[in-house]
Specification:
This protein is an alpha/beta fold. It has two domains: 316 residues, Aldolase class I (TIM Barrel); 70 residues, Alpha-Beta Plaits. Helix content is 30%, strand content 20%. Strand 9, helix 5 and strand 10 form a beta-alpha-beta unit. The longest helix has 15 residues. The C terminus is likely disordered. Bound molecules: flavin mononucleotide.
Length: 409
């Protein structure tokens, strides 16, 4: 049995005993819950976003609705939550208590404010209370305090730079992380603006503004609050590909540490976030669904994976996939791929045949036994048949010379 791999990772100059932390959310809006999470084994927690005592946080219920997809109950989660109803005075006390009881755990606070004075003031208070990191929500889908409804600070690079600099002024030596929204045309510009403002890290990225679906009888969208609804923030597995793209884009272009959030449900997702550049991974929807105990599987799964890959430390994952990402124009056209079938695995559901006939290149015919037969002249290797086949490994891609069109295969 080989030595266990080291799960610890560093982010913004702090050491986390594993990359797994709780994101700012209902999971972290209560002191007792964070205590339980730390006892369960989470490396850190971002306490739910707080604000000055004068802020009114007026919640509307119900605030959460699930996005079901093909039997998966929580493929996504929509929420119309706001920031915490617990103000900075209470969060200061929680930080002190948590740091005393769990000195090895990383206590991150999250903040939002409406004025320059408050951005600076709250950051100063959180830093003085002993917060390890100050995260700033520039990306709540319900909007930023003091801004026009629905407007997210993270959508304006100029404001990102300016407000980040204010927070840095208040935070002193405490690292500042800016939580951005993927809802922008140029994510690199936003991340660069945060860096220019002095940010130590980026939290990429928050929920995505969405309309969660409609009741076809009443015509009212979900979640329904006394016959009305509004736009939700979409989280959970449904948004993972968007988060991966955001982390990758920033990692490739901006020199800044990244903590990943948005769609990670298990250790595999976390490993993927790290492979494109995240140093830690934040979870919200998964623990809201299955509880804090998922940390055991996260740690166990990642440790086994690292050993399987012959890696000694989780940090070895960070950014390893970036060299494999390039622009479309730089992709090779020299090799051609075509689709092949392992007939013995075919369940004869005709899906590859139908997809290729009506959405592809009419390269698949069914023989007298209803088994798909590939026409190698017509197959361009688009990949649609693999995407729709329900049996893993039944269809596969084979590389052939571009001019050869499969005849060598
Ligand atoms: C009900 C709910 C409340 C949330 N509240 C906050 C918040 O106060 N501040 C914040 O920065 N993010 C908040 N988030 C966003 C999460 O921190 C996280 O970034 C997002 O849910 C994506 O991660 P996930 O797919 O693991 O859930 C909230 C998410 C949910 C579902």
């Amino acid at each position: 049995m080989s030595q266990p791999a080291d799960l610890s990772t560093s982010f913004c100059g702090l050491v986390f005993d594993s990359p797994f932390i709780l994101a700012a959310s209902p999971c972290t809006d209560d002191l007792e819950m964070v205590r339980r999470a730390f006892q369960a084994g989470w490396a850190g927690a971002v306490l739910k976003t707080t604000s000055v005592e004068e802020t009114t946080v007026d919640l509307a219920y119900p605030m959460i609705v699930g996005l079901e997809h093909e039997g998966r109950r929580v493929f996504g989660l929509g929420n119309i939550d706001l920031i915490s109803q617990h103000h900075v005075d209470e969060i200061e006390e929680r930080v002190r208590a948590l740091k005393e009881e769990f000195p090895q755990k990383v206590v991150v606070t999250s903040m939002m404010a409406a004025t320059k004075e408050d951005w600076i003031g709250v950051a100063r208070r959180l830093s003085a209370a002993g917060a390890d990191i100050i995260e700033c929500s520039f990306s709540c889908p319900q909007g930023t305090l003091g801004a026009k409804p629905g407007f997210m600070l993270g959508q304006d690079p100029g404001l990102v730079r300016e407000v980040t600099a204010w927070v840095k002024e208040g935070a002193g030596s405490t690292p500042v992380v800016i939580k951005i929204t993927p809802q922008v045309a140029d994510i690199v510009e936003v991340a660069q603006a945060a860096r220019d403002g002095g940010a130590d890290g980026i939290c990429a990225s928050n929920t995505i503004p969405a309309l969660m679906g409609l009741d076809l009888e009443t015509f009212v969208p979900y979640p329904q609050v006394a016959g009305k609804s509004t736009y939700s923030g979409l989280s959970g597995p449904a948004i993972k590909p968007i988060t991966l793209r955001v982390i990758a884009e920033i990692s490739r272009s901006v020199q800044i540490s990244i903590t990943g959030t948005g769609g990670a449900a298990d250790w595999r997702d976390a490993a993927e976030f790290m492979l494109v550049g995240a140093r830690t991974v934040q979870f919200c929807t998964a623990p809201m669904h299955y509880g804090f105990r998922i940390i055991e599987d996260l740690k166990d799964g990642l440790e086994r994976y690292l050993r399987h890959k012959g890696m000694r430390s989780a940090e070895e994952l960070v950014g390893k996939s970036l060299p494999f990402i390039t622009g479309h124009g730089d992709l090779s056209r020299e090799k051609k791929v075509i689709s092949r079938i392992r007939s013995e695995l075919c369940v004869k559901d005709d899906l590859c045949y139908l997809a290729c006939r009506d959405g592809g290149h009419q390269a698949i015919e069914l023989d007298e036994n209803r088994l798909p037969q590939m026409d190698e002249e017509k197959c361009v290797g688009c990949g649609l048949c693999l995407a729709v086949c329900p049996v893993p490994g039944c269809l596969y891609m084979e590389e052939v010379l571009a001019t050869d069109n499969g005849k060598s295969g």
